[in-house]
Amino acid sequence: QVQLVETGGGSVQVGGSLRLSCQASGYIDAVYCMGWFRQVPGKEREGLGSRYKDDTPIYAESVKGRFTISHDKANNTFYLQMNNLKPEDSGMYYCAADHGGLYDCGPEFRVRYWGQGTLVYVHS
User: Fold this and answer.
1) Three-state secondary-structure class, residue 52
2) Most C-beta atoms within 10 A of its C-beta, which of 54, 77, 80, 85?
C-alpha cells in the first residue's frame, strides 16, 4: 500500500503562484508513475501531468508552460508548482500514483493510489 498526503492548497489571486506538495509513504519503491489531477464540480477529473520514474514529466495542454512537476527523492515528496494561475485553475487537486509502466504513464493514467485532495481557489 501507498499513502499520499497533499498540502499547499489555498486562495491566490489571478496571475499568482502556489506550490502543492505530496508526501508519499508506504511501498513507494514500486511506484513508477505519479502525477496530479484536478476536479472541478460538475466536470470529470482532469489529468494535469505525470512523470514516469525520473523521466521528463508530460503535461496536459491546459497547464503546459505554467505548471511543473518535481520530486524530492530524499523526502519522498512530489511537488506541483503552479504559476500564472487563472480562475479556471480553481478546483480540488489530487496527487496520484500507480505501479504502471512507461507507456501507461500519461497525464490521464489509471490511478491506483489517490491522495485526499487539496483545494485551490484562484480569484480576481
Assistant:
1) strand
2) 80
Q: What is the mean pLDDT of residues 52-61?
A: 94
32 phi-psi bin (left φ>0, alpha ψ -120 to 50, beta other)? alpha
State in Å, rounded, how far the first CA of the chain is from the last one.
Answer: 40
User: Residue 71: which region, alpha, beta or left (left: phi > 0; alpha: psi -120 to 50)?
Assistant: beta
Residue 20 DSSP label = E
Residue 63: helix, strand or coil by DSSP?
coil
Reported as a single tens digit per residue, the pLDDT across 83-122 is 999 999 999 999 999 998 888 899 999 999 999 999 999 9
As beta bridge partners, residue 49 has: 36, 59
Tell me the C-alpha distance between 33 and 112, whole Å: 10
* Distance, CA of 98 to CA of 109 (rounded, Å): 8
Residue pair 92/56 in contact (Cβ under 8 Å)? The answer is no
Name the amino acid, one letter, at 53. K
